[in-house]
Specification:
CATH superfamily of one domain in chain A: HypD, alpha/beta domain 2
Helix content of chain B: 25-40%
Low-confidence stretches of chain A: none
CATH architecture of the largest domain in chain B: Alpha-Beta Complex
Oligomer: heterodimer
Shape of chain A: globular
Number of domains of chain B: 2
Structural class of chain B: alpha+beta
Low-confidence stretches of chain B: none
Order of helices and strands of chain A: HEHHEHHEHEHEHEHEHHEHEHEEHHH
Distance between the termini of chain A: 38 Å
Strand order of the largest sheet of chain B: 8-10-7-11-9-12-13
Distance between the termini of chain B: 29 Å
Number of strands of chain A: 11
Amino acid sequence: MQELMDQYTSSKISRALLDEVIKLAKQFQKKFQRIPAFMEVCGSHTMALARTGVKKALQNHIRLISGPGCPVCVTDQATIDAMISLTDEENRIICTFGDMMRVPGSYGTLMQAKANGNDVRVVYSPNDAVRIAEQNQQKEVIFLGIGFETTIPILAAALKEAEEKQIHNFSIWMSTKLVEPILRHLLNNKEVALDGFLLPGHVSMVMGRKHFEFLAAEYHLPGVISGFEAVELLSSLRRLLMLALEQNALVINDYQSVVAEDGNEHAKYWMNRYFALCDEPWRGIGTIAQSGMDIREEYRHFNAKEKFSVPMRSPRKTKCRCGEVIRGLIDPPECVLFAKACTPLNPIGPCMVSSEGSCAAYYQYMREE
Amino acid sequence: MDRITLAHGDGGELAHQLIQQVFVSYFHNDAYAKFDSALFHIENGQLAMTTDSFVVKPIFFPGGNIGKLSVAGTVNDLAVSGAIPKMMTCSFIIEEGFPIKDLKQIVHSMAEEAKKANVQIIAGDTKVVERGSADGIYINTTGLGIVPQPLTASIQEGDSVIISGSVGDHGIAVLAARGELGLMTHLESDCATLYPMISAAMKASKNIRIMRDPTRGGLATSLVEICEDFQVTIELEEEAIPLKREVQGACELLGFDPLYLANEGKVVLIVAKEDEQNVLDAIRSFPEGKEAAVIGTVRSTEKGQLLLRTPLGTTRRLYRLSGLLLPRIC
């Protein structure tokens, strides 16, 4: 009964918040003669905004632009191709998060590699890959390390376990990304005009509210850290609108049950113990200095890029516009391939595959036909 | 003898012993086992027939095992077609080295489920494959039923959509039981034989238009198929769909949509509005149906779309499950 009450109350609050958000958005429009534009940085927010109907309910009132927050989507094609090529050697087990399995490489997918008999395994945690290495000591086990600040600490946890157990046949092919450098890049390039950010709840859980203060201090933009329920998203949008209306550049934590001022010190310690900043290539953008993390020199025996090489082939070109989607320049339906040549069953680009991808969110939750 | 060997599948003495000690002793079907096929009489009229293979991993999971699933799944397919399940066959592919103790437990569960639906298991087969050629045990079942009164599927505007309980339990319970999620949950699979409940629902209303058991692909995929096959538009109320806290939590963590997760003990029915309460009462009188709820309405008899109204009052269209990677769950 309590559960029913919670659900009932929460949707009543959601509807009231929605009215309030629309009212504030109208005030903004009146004051600035345009619709407010906010970017959600996190792929899970993209999905949640579409699934809960918040995006649709606000489509005439707020421009919600999906940012570069889906880890698979921002990974450049050469890296994806290299990861798929890794599976071709004998005596290797490639472990990955499930999202990567169907991501189209230039010459096939991990799923096709698995069907061809290559040993590719989906795991839910990198530590599972360490255990697979432990059980298969005659084989090399490589984990495909894709993710943001939310994933990097769990990669560190896997390395910690491998170090403690002295496992020598485990390594990670790193291609992790950081949120701050990409946001700076987008803002410095001024490709997309924004009135504020809906900031990622999970990245903030690791990095803390203060981590995003640069948005206010240097770019004079407000940001609100949000949770993932309809009621939380609407509450954060309401606060973001209030800040934007007053042009009050503040970074507010609206996910206090999970996010602390300084984040999770423990997670940050282990991240920095095993990994150091590195330059990273981003899909559709190019290499951004110091925008990712790679394994530190003293742990190079866990670095798959040091241990193995793959034949480099130039990526096949397609009409896929994922690169523009992740920069917030176009909405998925503006791509000619969307829902025609490119669908979740036959994806041309990663944004259609990942459970956090903008194209997948649109296809699943916003498509009318 | 505590493990299956290749000799158990050779049709000789060991195979005979296995049949006598395991299958006949649980299924009590030796009367049918004297010829190469089972001979039986059945009433005149329309018959229903269905077949299904079961490869679930793990073989034992909270709330059931592959044996229970293999009987319940086939009985339910018959029952939702409006049939009275009568006869079943079962066929086993077993990996060399499989513990006979486990096989007995599986066969025992099959016999128990068959009893609940008053179905007789009258023929079967066992093959044993070398270690590594299969993953433990696979079961195929085929079911035969009689249909006294075929469902008309004459779905009308205003009809109600009813689900017999919470969605996604089986999908999450089995995923969690694989131990790969790092999730600790006490959630049990909803795996159950639904014939007695469905039979009661059919007694309570002569206006059940159609029924489905939303297994793989979940509630959404089953209803999309109905919408397309019969060109009706159904609108579901997201808030009305029963969902267990554990399932909701796991879905949030893993990025699954509960409407697309498998159920193995649920039925979704479309029934005339005026019979809605009678059918609900009938279903709720069974333990597996006590959370039954009206979850939507047939909005029109054109277009063939499944719509979901969110708590915010917006609607979005639901499509078939597409491109989600799920392991073996049934």
